[in-house]
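ingest -> validate -> predict -> emit
validate: passed (alphabet ok, no gaps, 318 aa)
predict: started
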Amino acid sequence: MTDNISRRPNQAICLEGLIIKGIGGFYYVESGDRIYECRARGVLRGKGAHTERVTPVAGDRCVITVHEGGLASLDRVLERRNSLLRPPLANLDNLFIVVSLCQPQPNALIVDRFISLAEHKGINPVIVITKLDLAEDGGFGEIYRKAGFSVICADYASPDGNFLDEIRVIMKDKISAFAGNTGAGKSTLLNALCPGLNRETGETSKKLGRGRHTTRETELFSLEFGGKIADTPGFSSFDGEFAEFVYKEDLHDTFREFADYVPNCRFTGCSHTCEKGCAVLEAVREGKISQSRHDSYVALYNEVKDIKEWERKRSQGR
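emit:
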């Protein structure tokens, strides 16, 4: 008997597990080498939040009870490290942002929007550049290397293909998701990384009952080298439509290259957009911070600067 199993007097078994999919009122929980179909028991609430309901999502760690006869209930969602509203996903470790150098052209604002949200949620953002055989980098990757991010060039012409190993090391034993515009090469990359994923996806979908439900939801699949990958319809394109924002008081913290300069701004509460004596603006003028990155910051700041508190609560589903 494993450490995460305990028995109740009626011979029910209490397990800890990982939600890999939730759909149609059912939650599919992986515990050990089995997947259990569960119904949530009553109203689940967050830790220490007596009035806040918690909707379980893929990536949640949870406690379930398996009753005699094989019926199972989802009893409790364990504390999350992070969560996303759309796509619904919890405890994400890595977000790989797949960007093509052409067809379509890279959009720095959308890339920076993804990075900002990931940074705010404590998710590791990794930029993967594709289609190097069709266009020159033009310094795009260097913008993000200079800002302190991991940038991986998907060079399929390389005889050793070591960029695939580099990505696998980051993914190993973690929950990862891939974001990429249509045509950016995300499917090609995933097939190269995980040749058995299509087969595994088919088997897992059969096990989980895909076909009984028509709505596509976020789903986690196991990787043969360790870890999970999220099938996230909400990350299928860079459409910029998010159910949540990084608000103005937190936004500068999601641009990590600002950190050395923010304390030196002349005024407390500086927005770092246009103020005299702003150390961030001075760093941009001196080339220490990329103009492209600062342009994205200003655009994102202008989107959220006038959002009211009641609008925040509504967007967060409260």
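DSSP finds nine helices and 14 strands in the chain.
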